[in-house]
Amino acid sequence: MSNETLKYSELLNRLIMDRTSTEDLGRIEDLLMVPTAHRVIGFVYKSGFLANQKRLLSLGQLSTIGPDAVMVDGNSTPETAIVEESKHSETLIGHEVWTEGGTRIGKISDYLFDSESGAIGQYLFVASGLASLTDGTYTLDTSGIVTIGKKRLIVSESVAEQSALHSDGLRQKLSTAVGQAKDAFDHARESVKDKAQNLGEQAKGLLEQAKDRAQVLSEQAKDKAQNFTEQTKEKAQALSVQALEGAHDALENVQQKLDSKPAQETPTLLEAPVETSTEP
């Protein structure tokens, strides 16, 4: 089995399978540990009808610890030393954590250990009181434990002050959620601001384009009106010239007709006939 760090709480109720027969042997109920040595020595698992039988497995019997099952050799039997040690095995889960100065800082809730040697590297504890719901889980190095009792253990002040956050509590999660929400809001606000600015620039560009287009159309209309006026003026002048020419031609025709007609002789007074009187 490869060396890895295991977590107590993650192994509870995990399936134990015989890798030879593939049969289920049971499920892990608890871990056997020696608190004074800070070492895990084996497992207690439930088996049989209605899981009413408890059996032991030494750490050395484990072949593979997978995410869904612990693989073991079902033909092997626990070592005698493990059976004897299990009689004196205790757990620190639930023990109160106190400092040498008399401050209760929390309660042991979990621990991390080496899969091959069983050595416990760190205990995990939650803060006391209502803070246990909000402050998360903290680490406690075994080197900082001064005294272990039946219900409590005492740690040095320096170790207590250096305890690091292992997993977020409600407060951290809420703070993280608020931070993420703020970041999302700021991002959305900047995005809206950028979009509004882009739309403003686009609207300004469209307005400039419309203004330029209107100016072009105005110039075109002005040119067309000027061309139309000039064309109308030219047509009017042409019609006036044509009218004058037509009138001139008409006058010339009349004059020619008058010139070509023979003049009528007008009788003189001597040549006028004398009327004779018929009176008696």
Number of helices: 5
What is the mean pLDDT? 78
Number of strands: 14
Strand-residue proportion: 25-35%
Tell me what the structure shows.
- The structure is a single chain.
- The chain is of the alpha+beta class and 280 residues long.
- The chain folds into 3 domains: 5-86, PRC-barrel domain (SH3 type barrels, Roll); 96-167, SH3 type barrels (Roll), CATH 2.30.30; 170-254.
- The protein is built from 5 helices and 14 strands.
- Strands 1, 8, 9, 10, 11, 12, 13 and 14 form an 8-stranded mixed β-sheet that branches. It has a 6-stranded mixed β-sheet with strand order 5-4-3-2-7-6.
- Strand 9 (104-114) and strand 10 form a beta hairpin.
- The protein is rod-shaped and about 170 Å long.
- Mean pLDDT is 78; it is low at 130-134 and 168-179.
Task: Kindly list the characteristics that best describe this protein.
14 strands, alpha+beta, 40% helix, eight-stranded mixed sheet, SH3 type barrels, 5 helices, 280 residues, six-stranded mixed sheet, rod-shaped, 3 domains
Topology of this structure?
Blueprint: E1 5-7, H1 8-11, E2 15-18, E3 24-34, E4 39-47, E5 53-58, E6 62-65, E7 69-72, H2 80-86, E8 96-99, E9 104-114, E10 120-127, H3 131-134, E11 137-141, E12 145-148, E13 152-155, H4 157-161, E14 165-167, H5 170-260
Parallel strand pairs: 2-7, 8-13
Antiparallel strand pairs: 1-9, 2-3, 3-4, 4-5, 6-7, 8-9, 9-10, 10-11, 11-14, 12-13
